[in-house]
Design brief:
By secondary structure, the protein is an alpha+beta fold. The chain has one domain: Trypsin-like serine proteases (Thrombin, subunit H, Beta Barrel). The chain contains 5 helices and 14 strands. Bound molecules: 2-acetamido-2-deoxy-beta-D-glucopyranose (4 copies). One of its GO terms (molecular function) is serine-type endopeptidase activity.
């Protein structure tokens, strides 16, 4: 489809205006969804800051993630990156724990498992101003049980989901203690890259243009599941559930080779853990630069006219 420059400029201005007025942040809680239990989504885990986790069970949740093998969780790079580092530097694996098999952040049952993290492989080209390559693998210091109904890996997408496919997002966010889920359709890539002018090609959108249903703060790193496969990673958005601003996801189809090669570098027979020597704090960003970029590009396009 051919879209006029004028329309693009108008959209960029709209995006920039809305983004400037509202906080643009990485995603955190399911908006407009419904409560579920872990048995519905046995692949999801809660990633927590170990320092807070050790004070009280239920504290320290920062991100979601999805089990993709019996020892590896796939999540977002921004959950582990040191603030504002280019090239990115990741926090030490000793700063995190992973809780699997729980429906409520504060409650443990006989199936709930807590893992220390042996290694974090964050994408080395993760770039915080655009959240490009927002993907990381978390190598657990233990194997997940093979026969628990509430802990099970999720297969990777073999091909991209068609536009309009209804997919599932789930997470705890930072408001609810109980796991929640919402249904979101895949937004056509060309529509997504008009709404978010500087959208890297490896990101995709899912959501309702009418707003109301979305991922939000605390859901970051959690899975977008289409047809029972890991298709996206909850990455960012402008507000949560705002009209015309669907959620932005890392497009898994673009990273399957990266995942397989990072996974193959891990030694599944090795169980060791470095000691806890510093504490992580909640990673938090704004995408103000995105707005600045949009404004700059708008100026360039207007001049070129
Ligand atoms: C990270 O950076 C943002 C702004 O760039 C700041 O507001 C926030 O406090 C920083 N967080 C940490 C943990 O340093
Ligand atoms: C995701 O990436 C794949 C592979 O590059 C691409 O074909 C697809 O259009 C992208 N977007 C979506 C929404 O799947
Ligand atoms: C990850 O590595 C393990 C152990 O080598 C292997 O069994 C598994 O199939 C791999 N999974 C993926 C998704 O690459
Ligand atoms: C495997 C794959 O789909 N790779 C593509 C990811 O996106 C970039 C563009 O950003 C393409 O060049 C790759 O071919």
């Amino acid at each position: 489809m051919f879209i006029s420059q004028g329309l693009i400029i108008a959209l960029v201005c709209l995006t920039a205006a809305a983004a400037a007025e509202q906080t643009v942040e990485t995603h955190a809680k399911i908006v407009g969804g419904y409560p579920i239990t872990i048995a519905d989504v046995p692949y999801i885990v809660s990633i927590r800051v170990r320092y807070y986790h050790e004070k009280e069970f239920g504290l320290g949740h920062i991100c979601g993630g999805a089990l993709i093998t019996e020892r590896v969780v796939c999540s977002a790079a921004h959950c582990f990156a040191e603030n504002g580092t280019i090239p990115v530097k990741y926090r030490g694996s000793e700063n995190y724990v992973v809780v699997a098999g729980g429906s409520n952040l504060n409650e443990k049952d006989s199936f709930t498992q807590v893992y220390l993290v042996q290694e974090i492989i964050g994408h080395h080209k993760y770039y915080y101003p655009t959240l490009e390559n927002d993907i990381a693998l978390v190598f657990l210091n233990g194997l997940i049980p093979s026969k628990y109904p509430t802990i099970r890996p999720l297969p990777l997408a073999e091909r991209p989901a068609n536009q309009g496919t209804l997919c599932l997002i789930s997470g705890w966010g930072n408001k609810y203690k109980q796991l929640r889920q919402a249904i979101v359709p895949v937004v056509p890539q060309n529509v997504c890259s008009i709404i978010y002018f500087f959208l890297p090609q490896t990101q995709m959108c899912a959501g309702w243009l009418r707003g109301g249903i979305d991922a939000c703060k605390g859901d970051s790193g959690g899975p977008l599941v289409c047809g029972g496969h890991l298709t996206g990673i909850i990455s960012w958005g402008v507000d949560c559930g705002r009209m015309f601003f669907p959620g932005v996801y890392t497009n898994i189809s673009n990273f399957t080779d990266w995942i397989r090669s990072a996974n193959s570098s891990l030694d599944y027979a090795d169980f060791t853990l470095r000691s806890l020597h510093n504490q992580a704090s909640r990673s938090h960003f704004s995408l103000k630069l995105y707005v600045v970029y949009s404004a700059l590009l708008t100026a360039i396009i207007i001049q070129a006219d």
